[in-house]
Task: inverse folding
């Protein structure tokens, strides 16, 4: 199988302290992977590095050419201003940015696709509401509807199920499974190990350094998890500069 | 029409029929209201309510330098103030990009420098009457050239605003999304600041740098109490700004009040009214409807 994302010796540092330290490996095309690890393990940094939102301190990330234009990213604690007077359908329609862009009109077909995406996440008829009127779970459903419309080959989810009710989690996991079935590459940062074991065939266990990467069953073994906990080390102001080749 | 109706009509419209300067002032108010309303709404939504104020102060040194070189020439003063305010905007923007300083802090720093420089230049080269004129404008002295400038700027601002509306709204409510798509949020932000400066400059002859912000912000803040969509708020704000202009002009005509503050005070009255009785989240307005709810 070809690789969707290849990471070569990737390091991301904030004020010279590594959040992600010498990570090499690959996400296979069409794979469904979970990224797990303790707090501050560099999970979000990894996604941000893939989208290009944070600069790399070293190494290289290569996206398969067919993916470059079609990356969908759901950030953690979405930075959306929920008080903004935007309607639910307007937010979903933004998912079609690649078609409508900054200036082109919103076509009827696009409007229909947006309504269909809303229906698929269980928000039928919510189009005319303001985004501020939705509950946390409904809002997360809304963001998934936008992801649906983005129709991306690579989907990055950063803690998509935080503070979301169980039923929403179940519904959204079904969408994730369907994306996987459609051959899309999905990478999700998650905390719930039981969820990862049940739904994600591949896992990457991070603690700034990669601890284990591969089949979820093997990666989430007791010894690996113990090592990850140990390695989620303290921020050491006096730490020497890393000597490993970049 | 009854006598009293005719009397009312004369009171409400008479001054504008009789005097050219009142007509020009009214048209200037209309043009300013049309672009200030939407601009103000976007400023509020972008949580930049005070940036408008900062930018207005930043016009001052530019206007003063224009005054120094060309006397009381609208063109020179407008060009000068546009350049000065854009320098402040770019300076503050650069600080935000190069350091962890927040935008409001850097705007505050830059506009205070600009304001002090402006006051210094004016007091060295002009009289305090000129200073008052720059700060508070003279809408009754708007001539045809000034009116043309206001109308042109208003048209351009509205057209550009309509063009960049979508990225502007997205950049404001979901910046990460735009960034992930490779949209150039920074560019639209800069364009928006340019429109803001243009609007303020166009209002400066009529209302002065300080009162112009009043006509921009007060209706915009009030609009949120009456409308729920961005478009609705922009329309309400523009309408309120125009009615403020009209009522303020009438008030200043009959009561012999300075027109700029009169206009802004009417807008202030609208704000207080909306605050208390506004349909959406007004203090009393929403209380009165609290017991109303739908079946589903």
Result:
């Amino acid at each position: 199988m070809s690789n969707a994302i290849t990471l070569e010796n990737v390091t991301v540092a904030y004020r010279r302290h590594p959040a992600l330290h010498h990570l090499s490996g690959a996400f296979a095309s069409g794979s469904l992977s979970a990224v797990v690890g303790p707090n501050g393990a560099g999970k979000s940094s990894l996604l941000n590095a893939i989208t290009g939102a944070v600069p790399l301190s070293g190494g290289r990330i290569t996206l398969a050419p067919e993916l470059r234009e079609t990356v969908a990213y759901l950030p953690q604690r979405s930075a959306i201003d929920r008080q903004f007077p935007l309607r639910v359908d307007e937010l979903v329609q933004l998912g079609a940015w690649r078609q409508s862009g900054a200036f082109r009109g919103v076509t009827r077909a696009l409007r229909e696709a947006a309504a269909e995406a809303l229906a698929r996440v269980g928000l039928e008829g919510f189009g005319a509401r303001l985004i501020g009127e939705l509950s946390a779970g409904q809002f997360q459903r809304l963001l998934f509807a936008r992801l649906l419309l983005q129709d991306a080959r690579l989907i990055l989810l950063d803690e998509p199920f935080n503070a979301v009710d169980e039923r929403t989690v179940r519904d959204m996991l079904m969408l994730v499974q369907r994306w996987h079935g459609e051959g899309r590459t999905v990478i999700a940062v998650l905390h719930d190990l039981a969820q990862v074991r049940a739904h994600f065939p591949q896992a990457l266990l991070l603690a700034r350094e990669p601890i284990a990467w591969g089949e979820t069953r093997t990666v989430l073994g007791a010894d690996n998890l113990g090592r990850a906990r140990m390695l989620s080390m303290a921020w050491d102001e006096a730490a020497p500069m890393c000597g490993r080749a970049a | 029409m009854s006598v009293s109706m005719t009397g009312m009509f004369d009171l409400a419209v008479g001054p504008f029929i009789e005097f050219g300067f009142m007509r020009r002032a009214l048209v200037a108010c209309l043009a300013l209201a049309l672009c200030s309303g939407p601009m103000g709404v976007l400023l509020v939504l972008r949580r930049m309510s005070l940036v408008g104020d900062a930018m207005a102060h930043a016009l001052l040194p530019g206007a003063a330098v224009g005054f120094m070189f060309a006397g009381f020439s609208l063109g020179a003063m407008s060009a000068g103030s546009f350049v000065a305010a854009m320098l402040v905007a770019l300076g503050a923007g650069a600080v935000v990009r190069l350091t962890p300083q927040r935008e409001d802090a850097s705007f505050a720093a830059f506009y205070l420098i600009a304001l002090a420089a402006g006051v210094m230049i004016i007091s060295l080269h002009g009289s305090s009457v000129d200073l008052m004129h720059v700060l508070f404008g003279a809408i009754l002295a708007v001539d045809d050239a000034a009116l043309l400038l206001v109308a042109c700027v208003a048209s351009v601002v509205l057209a550009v605003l309509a063009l960049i509306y979508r990225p502007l709204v997205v950049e404001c409510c979901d910046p990460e999304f735009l960034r992930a798509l490779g949209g150039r949020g920074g560019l639209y932000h800069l364009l928006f600041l340019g429109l803001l400066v243009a609007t303020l400059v166009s209002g400066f002859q009529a209302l002065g740098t300080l009162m112009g912000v009043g006509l921009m912000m007060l209706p915009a803040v009030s609009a949120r109490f009456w409308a729920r969509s961005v478009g609705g708020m922009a329309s309400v704000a523009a309408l309120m700004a125009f009615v403020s202009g009209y009522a303020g002009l009438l008030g200043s005509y009959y009561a012999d009040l300075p027109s700029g503050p009169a206009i802004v005070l009417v807008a202030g009255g609208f704000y207080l009214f909306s605050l208390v009785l506004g349909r959406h989240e007004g203090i009393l307005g929403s209380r009165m409807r609290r017991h109303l709810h739908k079946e589903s």
Remarks:
- Chain B touches chain A at residues 45, 163-164, 166-167, 169-170, 172-177, 179-181, 183, 224, 228-230, 233 (CB under 8 Å).
- Chain B has a mean pLDDT of 83.
